[in-house]
From TrEMBL:
It comes from Nonomuraea dietziae. Keywords: Hydrolase. GO terms for molecular function: hydrolase activity. InterPro entries: NTF2-like_dom_sf, SnoaL-like. The keyword Heme does not apply. This is Limonene-1,2-epoxide hydrolase. Residues 10-111 form the SnoaL-like domain.
């Protein structure tokens, strides 16, 4: 166990739970990369932080809780839950996420979140769309394309 890396992840999630993107940003290495089932791969602190600012600026707010933080000299992990209203449909979402990290120079250089896309789509879109389409590659591509477009527009604004 590396207490310094555990403290870094705790600081990150405390900031996340308070929507403090400036404090979140200080936890990331300038060359950080981020991936999840929606955004897939984002490179660089500016782009990763634009994604977090976009996500935290939407809807009625996001409630983030975290648990099970572990870290060694090179890697770390945590479980976290996001509760929010999906703005496109007004539906409540409770997303259970497993996060994986790599460290360099005492900062997070790789952050990957994993969650069940099918379960997320059922909550976010409801029935029948989320239930029937949530598993299809075409639907996932549509969601990913929309997310990338929203991120690009957010960065330009």
């Amino acid at each position: 166990m590396n207490d310094r890396h555990v403290a870094l992840l705790t600081t990150f999630f405390e900031a996340f739970s308070k929507s403090d993107t400036d404090a979140m940003e200080r936890c990331y290495h300038p060359d950080v990369s981020f991936g999840d089932p929606v955004f897939q791969e984002l490179e660089g602190r500016d782009k990763v932080m634009a994604m977090w600012r976009l996500m935290l600026s939407r809807g009625d707010g996001t409630d983030v809780t975290y648990r099970a933080i572990t870290a060694d000299d090179f890697t770390g992990s945590a479980s976290w839950t996001a509760r929010y209203t999906f703005t496109s449909t007004g539906r409540e979402v409770v997303n259970e996420v497993e996060a994986f990290f790599r460290f360099d120079d005492g900062l997070i250089v790789r952050h990957h979140d994993d969650f069940d896309f099918r379960q997320w789509s059922r909550m976010a879109l409801g029935r029948p769309a989320g239930l029937l389409l949530g598993w299809t590659p075409m639907f996932r591509k549509t969601i990913r394309d929309r997310a990338q477009q929203a991120l690009t527009e957010f960065q330009l604004s």
